């Protein structure tokens, strides 16, 4: 009888031990799954989708870049009050005294008010701006970062018959084809006053290839198929600030 009593007790102890180990393992598995789920959620939270933004750009020629830049920097407060954030200051590759300034804007009308302010005209005169500045207000509808060390840019501006039809052909050409020709997709913008005027910006990985691509009849054919009206305007420049 004594042996009969001890044997079931021994089995009970083993069973309880196994149950305890299994429960701990399952709890650990659940904990690991919870951590994995939390990590996945955190990763999803860190991925932000692109949101279109507006840009006010100014291009003009100056007598002396360094003298102009000093006056430009002094006007930071005025631009901030107008709801502007500097994106880049660039210089034309062929004429270093031709300057391109790009500012992100919060309000188009406020930016237009800034552009019409006599104080801006005075600042430009003080900075040695010559000729009439070209001012553009655009919606940036696509934007991709490029390597920080890549400072050279190409901007192509043209009017199209229909933006959606143009975009379909542009996407069909493919960023891989453009990259093979020294052009890295950077941004697509639409003129706010005329949305069928488009500006395509590329970072340049190979200047010789990029210039050759512009002269390539194959590109002209693509533009014709996309409904480009007239001759495109092209600008090569480098970011300096």
| Structural domain count | 2
The CATH topology of the largest domain corresponds to Alpha-Beta Plaits
Architecture of the largest domain in CATH?
2-Layer Sandwich
The best one-word shape is globular
Secondary-structure element order, N to C? HEHHEEHHEEHHEEHHE
Given as residue ranges, the uncertain stretches (5+ residues, pLDDT < 50) are 1-47
Characteristics of this structure?
241 residues, alpha+beta, Alpha-Beta Plaits, eight-stranded antiparallel barrel, 8 strands, 47% helix, disordered N terminus
Describe the structure.
The structure is a single chain. With 241 residues, the protein is of the alpha+beta class. The protein folds into two domains: 90 residues, 2-Layer Sandwich (Alpha-Beta Plaits); 98 residues, Alpha-Beta Plaits (2-Layer Sandwich), CATH 3.30.70. The chain is 47% helix and 33% strand. The protein is built from nine helices and eight strands. The chain has an eight-stranded antiparallel β-barrel, surrounded by four helices. A hairpin with a 5-residue loop joins strand 2 and strand 3. The longest helix is centred in the N-terminal third of the chain and has 45 residues. The radius of gyration is 30 Å and the shape is globular. It starts with a helix and ends with a strand. The N terminus is likely disordered.
């Amino acid at each position: 009888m004594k042996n009969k009593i001890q044997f079931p007790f021994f089995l009970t102890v083993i069973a309880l031990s196994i149950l305890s180990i299994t429960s701990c393992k399952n709890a650990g598995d659940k904990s690991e799954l919870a951590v994995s789920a939390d990590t996945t959620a955190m990763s999803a939270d860190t991925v932000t989708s692109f949101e279109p933004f507006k840009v006010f750009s100014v291009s003009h020629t100056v007598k002396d870049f360094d003298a102009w830049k000093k006056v430009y920097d002094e006007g930071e407060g005025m631009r901030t009050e107008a709801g502007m954030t500097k994106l880049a200051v660039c210089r034309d590759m062929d004429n270093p005294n031709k300057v391109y300034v790009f500012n992100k804007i919060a309000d188009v009308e406020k930016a237009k008010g800034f552009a019409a302010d006599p104080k801006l005209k005075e600042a430009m005169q003080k900075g040695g701006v010559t000729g009439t500045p070209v001012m553009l207000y655009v919606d940036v509808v696509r934007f991709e970062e490029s390597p920080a060390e890549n400072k050279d840019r190409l901007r192509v501006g043209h009017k199209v018959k229909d933006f959606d039809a143009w975009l379909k052909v542009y996407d069909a050409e493919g960023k891989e084809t453009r990259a093979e020709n020294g052009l890295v997709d950077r941004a697509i913008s639409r003129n706010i006053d005329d949305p069928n005027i488009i500006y395509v910006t590329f970072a340049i990985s190979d200047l010789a290839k990029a210039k050759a691509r512009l002269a390539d009849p194959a590109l002209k054919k693509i533009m014709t198929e996309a409904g480009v009206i007239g001759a495109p305007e092209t600008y090569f420049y480098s970011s300096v600030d």
